[in-house]
Amino acid sequence: MNCRSCGSNSTVQFLSLGRQPLANNFLKPEEVGKEPLYPLDLVFCENCTLVQLSDESFVPRDILFTHYLYASSVAGGLRAHFEQLAKTLSNLVLKGSVVVDIGSNDGVLLKPLKALGMSAVGVEPAANLARKANEQGLDTLNEFFGRNAVSTIVSRYGHADVITASNVFAHLDKIHGFINNVKLLLKADGFFLVEIQYIADTIKDMTYDNIYHEHVFYYSLHSLTRLFERHGMRIFKAEHIGTHGGSLRVYVCKDNRIPDYSIEQLTSHEKELQLHRLETYQTFADELMKRIGELRNLFSTLKQQGKFVAGYGAPAKSSTMINSIKLDSDVIEYVVEDAPLKQGLYTPGSHVPIVGPEVLEQKPPDYIIIFAWNYADDIMKKLEKFKKQGSKFVIPMPKMKVIE
Length: 404
Ligand SMILES: [Zn+2]
Description:
Elements: E1 11-20, E2 38-45, E3 51-53, H1 61-65, H2 76-92, E4 98-102, H3 110-115, E5 119-123, H4 127-135, E6 140-141, H5 147-157, E7 160-166, H6 175-185, E8 186-197, H7 199-205, E9 217-218, H8 221-230, E10 234-241, E11 247-253, H9 261-272, H10 278-304, E12 309-312, H11 319-324, E13 332-336, E14 354-355, H12 358-362, E15 367-370, H13 376-382, H14 384-388, E16 392-395, E17 401-403
Parallel strand pairs: 4-5, 4-7, 5-6, 7-8, 12-13, 12-15, 13-14, 15-16
Antiparallel strand pairs: 1-2, 2-3, 3-9, 8-11, 10-11, 16-17
Helix pairs in contact: 5-6
The structure holds zinc ion (ZN).
């Protein structure tokens, strides 16, 4: 297949996670077993070093995002991140600057920007979120970011001093068209700020739960640089930040700004990790298969022993792991989820019923798998009384741990 970024045919598949459901496709009882499955394979481009979904794994965005027409607001922890980002931006540009946030959700970034005196405008395709933002007086266009949104914004607000895209960039398929539209909207001396999950962290920390169909691209600074170069744009600053288990924030411009020292620093970090070599990704895939095998063995042993196993937390992010180890309702009786929205539904692919926390009280499980593993400490604290009653915890990722 041809690389979606550089167009070369030097792509090599290095990972196959089999056929998997869409991670966000939680099922109503009547939908169980009818959900579509798609291959989940990653390829590496030997020309521009970009990691991306294989053609067979690519799910048309309209199929994927129909589920998003009623998407949820940004979670609590991320609000602080966006408040901080607004402050950072307000130190870089003058009051009254036009800042456009693409994929603006419920206005989580627009709100602090506006409070800091910016002329902030959002673009958000999910109708319920755009409405929520507009009701709070946070100007939001309810559409996908395209030529039409660009014309509307330019005529109402003028060209943008800053354009931001946090965690939408990896989801796009038509990246070249998207970047062209960013260039059209951006002032000559403005900048485009992108936040994406960082492949360096995925490789280093084995956080493979961010591999799913929504994410078409898995960027490094190098592969992003190559992409923007094709459009005559330049990354002049890069930051390694903590969101989503490790992200990269880059500042991109149309003019000839001198790149700052951060570029050199991150470039050498990527060289140390050998992110430019196919072998690095093959080693990652081998280690991943080993870890998946270990988890599978644990659960088949528990099943043979007739243990009562439950899960805790059903984030979309857990789908890749659950389906890679082929867990199903034979192994796990149910998954507990605090969010009422998911209760009564079934997990995609594995068909485990999702229940409220009260179900745990009825009979303490022998084992509780913490699917929301990045909150494991908080969850274990919350579930301490079950531990006292003899329940054991399994933290499945990044490396399996059983806590007795
Ligand atoms: Zn390429």
